[in-house]
Amino acid sequence: MEVTKGPMAKTQHGRGWARRERKMPRKIAKKSKRVARRGWSTQDEKELRRHSRSKTPVKDISKALKRSVTALRQKAQSLGIPLGHRRSKKKRA
To answer: What is the pLDDT of residues 20-59, one digit of tens each?
Structure first.
């Protein structure tokens, strides 16, 4: 007697008894949003220089220019301007 249905049915290839895989619905991976890359205008560079001179925190510059902190740091490095962490000096008692 040959089993044709169930988990112990013969495989399609006839290679003996083996567990047949049950077909499960596949989960479709969600596509992540692609970041629209935009170039740096001269106005953006001027604003970055202005923020650098006034020692604005990087997070604030990021919000103002609508760019990531990493993008700001890379651009500042390529322009040769200081930008980065400026810790406030602690007052001594």
So the answer is: 566 667 777 777 777 678 899 999 999 999 999 999 999 9
- In total, how many domains does the chain have? 1
Cα–Cα distance measured from residue 38 to residue 67, given in angstroms and rounded to the nearest whole number: 10
Does 12 reside within a domain? no
Contacts 24+ apart (CB under 8 A), 46-55: 48/72, 48/75, 48/76, 48/79, 48/81, 48/83, 49/79, 49/81, 51/83, 52/76, 52/81, 52/82, 52/83, 55/86
Q: Is residue 53 part of a domain?
A: yes
**Domain span including residue 47:** 43-79
